[in-house]
Amino acid sequence: MHNVAFVALTKIPWSKVGKTSLLLLEAARKIYDTIARHANSSKSKKKDAKISITVLNNRIKTLENNEVEQAKLISQIAGQIEVLSNSLRVVGARFNLTLFISICATILVLFTIIWIVLF
């Protein structure tokens, strides 16, 4: 039983696992730094309780612009899904036609073989 585990462990590409884990660690560190930076900036912003109306308006405009861009992306994705589903319907119809022709050809071949054997 121990030999099987040893053989299984030797089949694992440990060099790739090491490289991948380093990439994952680096990505996790970047995410952590981003979150920590955001947390620190929000703490400092809480200290500055007075936020001007213009800053709030700018933030609202930025959020609205992001919403518009997201709506455009969703619309494009919906269009792509529609094209894909239409293409899938066409492929399905072609498959059904090919299947029907194949079944008819198989039946014709079987009848021909039976005809040759019997007569």
What would you say this structure looks like, in words?
By secondary structure, the protein is an all-alpha fold. It has two domains: about 1-50; about 55-119. The protein is built from three helices and no strands.
- How many separate domains make up the residues? 2
Helix percentage: over 70%
Approximate strand percentage: under 5%
Mean pLDDT, all residues: 79
- Helix-strand sequence: HHH
Characteristics of this structure?
single chain; 119 residues; mainly alpha
Can you lay out the helices and strands and say which pair or pack?
Blueprint: H1 2-11, H2 14-47, H3 53-118
Structure, briefly:
It is built from 3 helices and no strands.
